[in-house]
Amino acid sequence: MSGGVDSTLAALLLKQQGFHVIGLTMKLWEYDRVGGELPRASSCCNIELVENARAVCARYDIPHYVLDMSKDFEESVIADFVTEYQQGRTPNPCVVCNTRIKWDLLLRKAQSMGADYLATGHYAQVEFNSRNNRWILKKGLDQKRDQSYFLWGLKQDALAKTLFPLGKLTKKRVRQLSRENDLRTAETPESREICFVTDDNYRRFLSDYAGIESNPGPVYDEDGKQVGEHKGVTAYTVGQRRGLNIALGYPVYVKKIDPENNAIHICRGDNIKSASFMAGSVNWVSTAPPAGEITCKVKIRYTTREFEATLAPGDNDNLQVRLVEPASAVTPGQSAVFYSQDVVLAGGIIHEVH
Questions:
Q1: Of 55, 151, 148, 140, the residue nearest 101 (C-alpha)
Q2: CA distance 58 to 42
Q3: Whole-angstrom Cα distance, residue 5 to residue 177?
Q4: Residues 6+ apart with CB under 8 A from 47
């Protein structure tokens, strides 16, 4: 229970369904460690949200506990975030948090407290498919709020112990039910920034927290000619256009980040698209790994549309992904999530973009 509208309504709905509910709020980071502006009202680990969770639990006779998991979060999520940027990739910390913190450490903690299930306010669905004897992860009913993209790291044993009370609800209905039940969280604003980067300035965070200083270097065009100087490779992401400060008479985008040589490579807009890439650390969520190629749809970022793709399984949990239609800004470090209609087949981390 973060203390927002989704998790508090999820707890209430389970209570109304007859579950014995325990509220767990995770304390994931310290403001004096991450710096930046004071946390916004919608930021997780904000004291106001913790009090919201506590108050709702008290009202409905739900035991509530605050768990200090900041050390684990720092060692798993924040450390990965820093390392990925240092290696020229653009990470997705929410995926890491869900996999390593919520459905690993928190689930085990909940089970040690006697809980049978871990429930969250995610907009997703989990069902058991008796035909293939597997738990399947599905998109939430509200396509605009669907959060299945961030959950591809969940294993079968975790899905078997998971409940998503909001999976068949729209965000509008969640707000409505919260108002009808007079929940103090009914109007809690949305949180979309990286929770531990409170000012939404990851470059400032990398400097203040990790001590990563700007190290200027060359910017090369598609012919290998140096056309400018960058401010440090951690300040850029593939597909970026703004902030390059390079005037060539036509729009240019970051095509490749080369941290080993401290270089940035740019290209024209027509050449920012990619037709294939490799995905690593692949987790087959709702189906067993296929023996051969399969066709499906893939999302290469949470905010992008789905693309038709062919998957060819490789060695060591790798996949070769061929896109029917080339996509812009396929970014190393981001998650590629593969779907068959509303079912999450698998997910992995993008690398080796072609």
A1: 151
A2: 21
A3: 10
A4: none
Would you say 218 and 236 are in contact if contact means Cβ atoms under 8 Å apart? no
What are the tokens at 342? 């509303």
Amino acid identity of residue 330, one-letter, is V
- 353: β partners: 277
Is residue 106 within 8 Å of residue 90, measured between CB atoms? no
Q: Do residues 14 and 57 lie in contact, with contact meaning Cβ atoms separated by under 8 Å?
A: no
pTM of the model: 0.95
pLDDT in tens, 39-72: 655 566 678 899 999 999 999 999 999 999 999 9
With b meaning 16 or more CB within 10 Å and e meaning fewer, what string describes 74-92? bebbbebbbebbebbbbbb
Distance CA 59, CA 100 (A): 31
97 among known catalytic residues: yes
Q: Which two tokens stand for residue 221?
A: 């065009």
Strand, coil or helix: 322: strand
Does residue 74 sit in helix, strand or coil? Answer: helix
Return the amino acid letter for 325: E
Model confidence pLDDT, tens digit, residues 255-310: 999 999 999 999 999 999 999 999 999 999 999 999 999 999 999 999 999 999 99
211 phi-psi bin (left φ>0, alpha ψ -120 to 50, beta other): left
Task: Find tokens 């969770």 and name the residue.
Answer: 53
The three-state DSSP-derived secondary structure of 225-277 is CEEEEECCHHHCCCCCCCCCCCCCCCCEEEEEEEHHHCEEEEEEHHHCEEEEE
CA distance 26 to 101: 10
Fill in the amino acid letter for 271: N
- Options 57, 94, 195, 296, the catalytic residue: 195
Helix (H, G, I), strand (E, B) or coil at 175: helix
Of the residues 44, 45, 94, 97, only one is catalytic, namely 97
